[in-house]
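Here is one chain, start to finish.
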Amino acid sequence: MILMPRIIFDTILNNFNEIDIQKLTQPLIAIYKHPRDYPEKYVARLWDISKPTQYIVLSDNIDNIRQAIPFWMVRLMPTEWDDPVLVETWL
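Its structure:
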């Protein structure tokens, strides 16, 4: 039997207040600048601990992305070991 990888289709949101992210075990939002899957955009992807979800926000402008982050989350800057396209993470 050949196992096929699970394909996640992204659900594009205007902001993360459109869903109840507090139901996740440990929600975090990672913001990327020009990742491979959206090379012309900034992308904010919702994660649950270390598992990506299908929920993203896209924009040409990082300020628009930051406005989509819930007010109660706190920003963390990337470390030297993080992927170079990672701009910041919100917990």
